[in-house]
Amino acid sequence: AQSVAQPEDQVNVAEGNPLTVKCTYSVSGNPYLFWYVQYPNRGLQFLLKYITGDNLVKGSYGFEAEFNKSQTSFHLKKPSALVSDSALYFCAVRDKTGANNLFFGTGTRLTVIP
Amino acid sequence: DGGITQSPKYLFRKEGQNVTLSCEQNLNHDAMYWYRQDPGQGLRLIYYSQIVNDFQKGDIAEGYSVSREKKESFPLTVTSAQKNPTAFYLCASSSGTSNTEAFFGQGTRLTVV
Asked: What confidence tens digit (pLDDT) does each residue in B49-59 have?
């Protein structure tokens, strides 16, 4: 079965500091991994994805994520956090069987403190 | 302006009443999905459709029904059989290939009164 885990419900970081939001996955075969962000009472916005190639993936709003096959991780990172980055972040893995669905983690709430 | 539109944004349902949530996309996507979001539980899949006139149950389909008569539309009906319908409902679409991201609507917040 395919799944992702986000071990931290809440992450707090000071504005200007680097941020990391953690994600680990469990899949058979090579994973297709995604990060989304959700602002209050809004839908999910796509940030970035890893399909193949370079382990460091760059995405929207200055975010990047590092794919680590040996640690089965796909952590989201940003070198310098902004207050406006405060939101709920979801990691997801694609089911590459016929259903082709996305399986989501439980989300991590990021708070950037001014 | 392409995208995926959900309506209404807020919906109130009385006990024992069926309600239908609308989801329309103009992205020419084959696949569409309905998710339910509850605090601390992430997103759970209710139903999905890979092609017109075909749909499949997800993890929490009980008390819900869908139709896919047109490629652009995937309405979700929350029936009176759904015992705890208060939640935030998200519709998504994707091209159907596994290496592409899904696009989400802005969500509908359903409250039972």
From this structure: 999 999 999 99
Residues contacting residue A66 through CB under 8 Å, at least 6 positions apart:
A55, A56, A57, A73, A74, A75, A77
The tally of CA atoms less than 13 A away on the side-chain side of residue A9 is 3
Q: Give contacts of A44 with chain B, Cβ < 8 Å.
A: 43, 90, 92, 104
CA distance A44 to chain B (A): 6
- Which residues does chain A have within 8 Å of residue B42's beta carbon, measured at their own beta carbons? 90, 104-107
Q: Looking at residue B18, what is its pLDDT?
A: 94
Residues in chain A within 8 Å Cβ distance of B56: 99
The predicted-structure confidence for A57-73, as pLDDT tens digits, reads as follows: 999 999 999 999 999 99
Q: What is the mean pLDDT of residues B88-100?
A: 88
The Cα–Cα gap between B53 and B55 comes to 7
